[in-house]
Design goal:
It is built from 4 helices and 7 strands, in the order H-H-H-E-E-E-E-E-E-H-E. It has helices at residues 6-10, 25-29, 37-47, 120-124; strands at residues 60-65, 73-75, 79-85, 89-94, 99-104, 108-115, 131-133. The protein starts with 5 loop residues before the first helix and ends with a strand.
Length: 135
């Protein structure tokens, strides 16, 4: 196998994020820096497709969440890596909290939206977390 030239070695490796497969990139590129977290979340939900099948462990999701537990601090716009699925709901690592959180099916407002692994880094850069206290 022939060796690569210096020019070939210096060329950037093309990834999914570089060839327009990243749906989040259009949202990050359009930010000016003073957007409301809910506005960013709405734009993300318009950009991504609603999940039409059952969510799967090991995948990434965003969704709107309104818990029933009183006096609990929560993230209304979670971004999670789903770890476990149960009859009552699911558990996942919330990127905004940096820890595992539990979510019940009935408190998910609408659908889940899957985020591809190649989009995670871009999504982490968006300020769409909305921490609230459930009164």
């Amino acid at each position: 196998m022939p060796r690569k030239t210096v020019k070939e070695q210096k060329q950037k490796r093309v990834t999914d994020t570089d060839v327009n497969r990243n749906r989040i990139r259009s949202v990050t590129d359009g930010l000016v820096g003073n957007e409301d977290p809910d506005d960013i979340m709405l734009e993300l939900m318009e950009t991504l497709d609603e999940l039409t099948e059952a969510p799967q462990s090991g995948r990434f999701y965003i969704f709107v969440y309104n818990p029933k537990t009183p006096n609990i601090e929560y993230d209304q716009n979670p971004f999670i890596a789903l770890t476990d699925i149960f009859e009552w709901g699911f558990r996942g690592i919330n990127f905004h909290w940096g820890e595992t959180r539990q979510y019940t099916w009935n408190e998910v407002a609408g659908s889940l939206y899957e985020v591809y692994a190649s989009e995670v880094k871009d999504l982490q850069a968006l300020p769409f977390a909305k921490f609230r206290l459930n009164n």
